[in-house]
Design goal:
By secondary structure, the chain is mainly alpha-helical. It is built from 5 helices and 3 strands; from the N terminus they run H-E-E-E-H-H-H-H. The termini are far apart.
Length: about 150
Amino acid sequence: MTEPLEKRLEKAMAELQAAQEAMARTERELRQASFAVLSSDRAVRATVGPQGELTGIEFLESKYRDMSPQELAASVLEAAGAARVKMNRHVMKAMSPFTEPSSNVPELKGFEVDWERIFGPEVLHDDEDTARGAGHAPGWRDALDEDGED
């Protein structure tokens, strides 16, 4: 026997209210989020804000003094990119409950999000080592070594 329409509508409205409150909490939390990541050579720490924007760069332990401009730029780009991916994954995790179907109201199917299209393919890798080549030097570092510019 199915529930009366009035009861189903009441459940749907309660679920909508709960979802709106949860979305507001999630938005507040995400507006405050930031992530900092060290480059693999530990010379640079980059920090990104809630929209993946670069909010800080730190040059650590004076290592930058012995680096070529290309090496330093590569370290900055690596750290900033990794911090951005970390933020993107945080956003995905925070928003995932809103993409799932409702357990109380079967008519509310949730929605699909193409995270790869929004954030790029690296966000779908399960761990950061996979995204960076499983512990190998990133490709741009190999290119620096091949330039002969030291």
